[in-house]
Amino acid sequence: MTPPEQDPHHPAGYPDGYEADVVLRDGATAHLRPITPGDADLLVAFYARVSEQSKYYRFFAPYPQLSDRDVARFTQVDYHDRLALIVTVGSEMIGVGRYERTGRRTAEVAFLIEDAHQGRGLGQLFLEHLAQAARENGIHRFVAEVLPDNRKMITVFAEAGYKVAREFEDGVIVVEFDIAPTDTSFGVMQAREQRSEALSIARLLTPNAVAVIGASRREGTIGNALLRNLRDGGFPGRLYAVNTDTKATEIEGVPAYPTIRDVDGTVDLAVVAVRAELVADVVLDCAAKGVRGLVVVSSGFAEIGGEGRKLQRYLVGLARSYGMRVIGPNALGLINTAPGVSLNATLSPLMPSKGRVAFFCQSGALGVPILADMVGRGLGLSSFVSAGNRADVSGNDLMQFWYSDEATEVVLLYLESLGNPRKFSRVARRLARRKPVIALKSGRATQGVPLGQMVRRSQLPAATIESLFRQSGLIGVDTTGELFDVAQLLAHQPLPKGRRVAIVSNSDALTLLALDTMAGCGLDVAGEPRNLSADATAEDFGVALSEVFDDERVDSVVVIYTPPVQSNGAEVAQVLAAAAAGSDKPVVSTFLASRSVPEALRVPDDHGGAARGSIPSFLNPQYAVGALAKATQYGEWRRRSDSRIPDLPDVDTPGAEDFVAEFLQRHPSGADLDDADRQRLLSFYGINVLPAFPVLSADEAVARAEDLGFEVILKATAEQWRMRPDLADIWRHIHDEDDMRAAWAEMTESFGVAADPGRAQFVVQKMAPPGVPVVISALEDVSFGPVVTFGLSGVATDLLGDRSYRMPPLTTRDAAEMVREVRAAPLLYGYRGSDPVDIAAIESLLHRVSRLTLDLEEVVRLDLRSVLAAAEGATVLDTTIRIAPNEKPRQDAPARRLT
């Protein structure tokens, strides 16, 4: 089946951006969209299935059927003052929610949900999406009337996270609340999002019955490999083979059927390995069978170009519309080692042992060597997903699942692209507070997007990804080897409590390597290394190890053991294991140059693997210390108290929103703001700019300076002259008329601006207090959304890219780290005897810019190009701002949706 063309006959003003695939409370998916006049028959059929009681709760009177007038009124809306959203599963409507404006800022809201689908969280989803749409249309407050015994609807409002006022009038409860997002409402939505998305992944990872569609007898085929791996991996549930080209009753000892519709019994998961053009028909068959999820191994989708992308979009939309999640297409598959599941639905015959490490990757080609490396290291696995084109299920979904998965203690991510960086950052940060997340991002240097992954291409520098990882508490690594090194440590040892590291070694050469690596990683040596002789005995190691484990100044221990001739190290291993047992100090080793957990250093778990307390070994001390440094940095991040997003009571967001709307009425295509408009917009966020006055002549410059009382500057404004290392674009300390005329003559001669006398290329501005110049910027990126940047001003720092990046909202910790992590930061703290600047004033500006760019999507670029940070305060001298209409809405809007 080929994908049909999308219906172009939407009514005028139809808001495509309000369409969304959503996950319901039970983990199934559905489609939410605005209603259209063409939905009349759908609405009538839906209403016929609704119980009389639900109709009574909605209309407060018996209302057995809808009149033609009712149908027309309910399906014909203007999408602004009157909006209705419906949720569909397959071809049926299962719920409708609407608001109708009753005042300039107020609207009445109501829902009606089919009885069979009540309790699946539809009311909460309607409220979230209606509130978001209402805010965009200038509505600030919802009102609803509810019968007292309609407890379900009362609960929807009460548990939404808004501050709800209730009154009892004429036998009806009147509910009223502001719909501006709050920390509480955000928290409620995110908790619901985590539970529903986690459950949708659990449905994929814990099936009771699996069908391989495209199963084959022929060895070497994908269908044959999938069937064998599922069978040989020990899956205890029901397994079915499906192949339309065979009349066999079994394949590889597995019951076979021509279609999945013919299978006796239910099927939870379908693993699909048929030609791309047949997959859509398979999805429809699976929907009819009640399948809960798909693993699509088939290729021939977005990775082949435009037609494949269209087919891929259709596949995902079709599957979601029938309640199913999709891993793939072009996927390697998934593994779950949990007892009672033992699911290997991949193309890899390797089934790792049960463990505490979970892994998500996007590359099918890399998935096989990754699994081989894990098996070779003896690193046990809890679950594994290789998502291929990642058209639906993504790393965000898996992180939501692993957040509450008790079998997973460490999470590994191999990422080729970030489909929704804002949601990724938010979900990863929440997970990292509970479990370590180790991430390797490929393509950082080129910002390339692999074939098949339909993501928005960011224009931000590679450093943005690194900053995103730091902001989210992720442990970023550069190689797959480092990925597993850090995992090997965190899966077996506790987190370091500090940076002080003791070394016990019987090799001077390897000790020096360890010390060099520690210096480069920012770790501190706890006392002198315990350098033992090359032929040190187990007793010698025991004495040294007892000292370092008992030393309160030691946070972590590195043990290096290179055996003398004819020694297998068994006695040293026993001593090391005994010394480390029960200690809360992590220990890493270079033990016999092993790259795993040696048997002699292993604490066995219930499944024959290595339990916590086992001591990992690395090929050399550099790898061991590198892994320890990453764990130490993560431990420091975890120990930081949760910082907060500061309150900014002087911010006037509604005023700013009105200003932006009015500006876009004047400039429908967008434009740069002039001085007056920039001052006005920034004033809504408490950012004051020192006024600058354009001048066209020396006489004007003198007159303006006299008005200001002199002590002014003359500044060139043309972009091509700014920050030129060979020219001074600012003339400072102008005390009187003679100074100004001298400055004018010198600068006009230097800049050669006399040829354009009608355009002001100079401004006069009052002198600001002396300080360090810094730059604060915000950019609306098509992929990341708003990103705030900080750095010191100057050619050198600009050339070297010495900037820090964060995604709003900024916590107090985020702003503090932004200021301190740039390499030129010492200039702000009294470098070489200079006065320290007011760091709090810089951080306040960062928070205000963060809030502005988060509130106002239309501000696509904002630069505080020249900010002088002084001993007291920070003065904004020069700004640029551009406002433009939203062409593509942000991907992580408050209302829950699958992206």
Automatic annotation (TrEMBL):
The residue stretches assigned to a coiled coil in this entry are none
Start and end residues of each N-acetyltransferase domain: 30-180
A single Gene Ontology MF term assigned here is:
ATP binding
Q: Has UniProt tagged this entry with the keyword Oxidoreductase?
A: no
User: Which keywords belong to this entry?
Assistant: Transferase
Superkingdom, natural source? Bacteria
Which InterPro entries would you find in this protein's record?
A: Acyl_CoA_acyltransferase, ATP_grasp_subdomain_1, CoA-bd, GNAT_dom, NAD(P)-bd_dom_sf, Succ_CoA_lig_flav_dom, Succinyl-CoA_synth-like
CDD domains linked to this entry = NAT_SF
One of its Pfam families is ATP-grasp_5
Protein's UniProt name: GNAT family N-acetyltransferase
Q: What is the lineage of its organism?
A: Bacteria, Bacillati, Actinomycetota, Actinomycetes, Propionibacteriales
